[in-house]
Amino acid sequence: MLEIRPNCENCNKVLPYSSKEAMICTFECTFCKDCVETFLHEVCPNCGGGFEKRPVRPKHLLEKYPVSTKEVYNPVDIVKHQDLLKNIGNNTL
């Protein structure tokens, strides 16, 4: 089950369970759509994989399946990320 983390790892933007701005990679690294598109160029800085829109957990299931309260805030080093982008080229899968 997805954790549904509450914030963007890069800019710390709040991303509640119902956010349509949340993006995740295969390891559930969570970033806002703005960071993914403009800063990360659709490449996860942690694993080098791509992103998908995070699904919204249905409100009626929140009590039974609560979302994570674990905040991860680790701003991306732009120089390292640019190196990663160069090393993997356009093939992120």
Task: Describe the 3D structure.
The mean pLDDT is 94. The protein is built from two helices and three strands. The protein has a three-stranded antiparallel sheet. It has one domain (22-88). It is elongated and about 45 Å long. With 93 residues, the chain is of the alpha+beta class.
Q: What characterizes the major β-sheet?
A: 3 strands, antiparallel
Q: What's the arrangement of strands in the largest beta sheet?
A: 2-1-3
The termini sit apart by 22 Å
> Secondary-structure element order, as H and E?
EEHEH
Strand content: 5-15%
Radius of gyration: 13 Å
User: What are the segments in which pLDDT stays under 50 over at least 5 consecutive residues?
Assistant: none
Assembly type: single chain
Arithmetic mean of pLDDT: 94
Q: Specify the structural class.
A: alpha+beta
Shape: elongated
Helix content range: 10-25%
Q: Helix tally?
A: 2
Q: What is the total number of structural domains?
A: 1
Number of strands: 3
List keywords for this structure.
93 residues; alpha+beta; three-stranded antiparallel beta sheet; 3 strands; elongated
Strand and helix map with partners:
Layout: E1 22-24, E2 30-32, H1 33-39, E3 52-53, H2 78-88
Antiparallel strand pairs: 1-2, 1-3
